[in-house]
Fold:
Amino acid sequence: MENLGRVERIWIKRGKGGPMDPTPRARAVAGKGLVGNADQGGRRQVTIIEHDVWDRLRAELDARVEPVMRRANVLVSGVALKGTRGRILQLGHVRVRVLGETRPCEQMDAAMPGLRRALEPEWRGGVFGELLDDGDISVGDVVRWQEDQPS
Structure:
């Protein structure tokens, strides 16, 4: 059985520390990042978080905690991100090579006290990676690990 997920939400970060703008679709540029996003090039071209993690955080920390507070680009459901360094995640038609765990920073506590500590264990802060394809990522797109695809 395939491990399929779904793109739940997408955000574009206007600037370092700036607002996170929700959008139904983002244009990915291979080796660069999401069009309009502050992070371009380098290793952190896109950041991804898990919906299930946020459900647990609401129960543990505060019902008001929202995924946008993590300041990531994409919220996915149905796939686990923990320990996935080096794997390739497909968001719709766009592949992302996971390069590592996104470590929470002080901005998390500015959004909600205690959020940084709650995100630290077990890759709860999500992952970052490099974009391998040009294309659109849309809310509702299928998410899967590359090795789960039929050949």
